[in-house]
């Protein structure tokens, strides 16, 4: 009897927290299909007359597509760089026999501690001197740089599972060092590539601080900046449109997350469990 | 990390691109920040070397102290929510048998929403015009007198900017703790039970000490994350009203990009980085037990002896 009550309390607590975690998100989607009048008078209730007017409005207004295109550009290019640089550096650090690999690896992992804020002022000054503020490059450079510590770590820890015998065999067969990487090791790292890619896809898509510092031009604004503009840009805060815009722009990371759920959580929790 | 390849040229080809990129995008700006922290510069015109003047100014700056203490408050709330609730949920989940994967997946959802969206969500909940959910709920359950304008009320604003950040990552830390708890050797817990420990004792005395490593790493992540907290407070109130909810990084941002005091802004940034490194070091010392430290010392000694022997 006592055990059963405990079990019920347990389930109820877990569900209660689940409700707290999810309610704002679900509410967001519901709010986005409510007409503005209903949103003001009965924000809790289920939408009485669901409408897609908010969505039609933001699509007509059109800037949401531009924001998403800008974010997509930055995200895709950054990920290509992150994967290319960290898969090769990870290979160098884990499969070569040099004394220097250990200190360099430590140097990379040190980067995990560094707050991104410290780079904002120097990068801003550098970019404005070069006259390249508002370009995608301004975001890609720090995004890739700050992604390297963790992604190098992930590749190194994966490569450590690739047995040295495999590489020895490839050498015996006359495979060059480059061939070993491209034909043997890198193809094996498929899962790590997906993990790194999906995790940074979400993180970079969501970035706010770099975009807010280096982008001021409306044409170059990314999603995170654009969402801020729905407040105020239409006189009063237009909550209906804001919610619709939020719903549209969080859809891509949601899709990535639900499609590659295991990889994303593995990636995001990696930083904590691997050290 | 015991590789076998020895081709020096290939090693450099693989390593250098990433290393150079990392140096240029992360370490060059850090060096520049440190240099900037000793100069006075308004963005245009000549830079003026002022030595330690910025640092002296920093320790006399009242708003900086406000930001510092606010940041501690923010840290306590964020750490409390993420570590305590995360851990509690993880422990509860270990007792569940069905649906754990689904629950884990759903708990994680807030982490993948951009901070700006989270902020707008909470802004609408805190709102008074039109009445936000929180005030409506308070009125609905008869606690209408507690309804307030959350983000302009000096007493509530700091808590209000901290909660969204805590809420957002609770699920992530739960997933981390759960993974650690589930990977523990069940035989150890069984042994504790046979020795007469009840569930609570097993948890406190056996399970938690066993996930000490994970605890250290998550604490490091949460603490350094909270010290650099920026997105949500910046978008939600930008430190306002006045400087009541100012945090160190929002203050730094304001000084540099709104006030054009690039030198002084860099000084604050350097302070944040030093503070983060200090916290990491303190945590490491706290979590390294006496025995471990002794063990490490002996190992070091042995290594030295061996080298001498050679």
Give an account of the 3D structure.
The complex is a heterodimer of chains A (275) and B (310). By secondary structure, chain A is an all-alpha fold. Chain A has two domains: 19-51, no CATH class; 64-274, MetI-like fold (Orthogonal Bundle), CATH 1.10.3720. Chain A contains 14 helices and no strands. Chain A has helices at residues 2-32, 36-41, 53-61, 63-95, 101-110, 117-130, 136-159, 164-172, 177-188, 190-205, 209-214, 223-233, 239-259, 261-274. In chain A, α4 packs antiparallel against α10 and α4 packs antiparallel against α12 (223-233). The radius of gyration of chain A is 23 Å and the shape is globular. The two termini of chain A are 44 Å apart. The mean pLDDT of chain A is 85. Chain B has helices at residues 8-36, 53-60, 62-95, 100-107, 115-126, 133-140, 157-182, 186-194, 199-210, 212-227, 231-236, 248-258, 262-287, 290-309, and strands spanning 39-40, 48-49. In chain B, a hairpin with a 7-residue loop joins β1 (39-40) and β2 (48-49). Chain B is globular. In chain B, α3 runs antiparallel to α10 (212-227), α8 packs antiparallel against α9 (199-210) and α10 runs antiparallel to α13 (262-287). Chain B has a single domain (36-289), classed as MetI-like fold, CATH 1.10.3720.10. Chain B has 310 residues and is mainly alpha-helical. The longest helix of chain B is centred in the N-terminal third of the chain and has 34 residues, at 62-95. At the A-B interface, α1, α4, α5, α6 and α7 of A face α1, α3, α4, α5 and α7 of B.
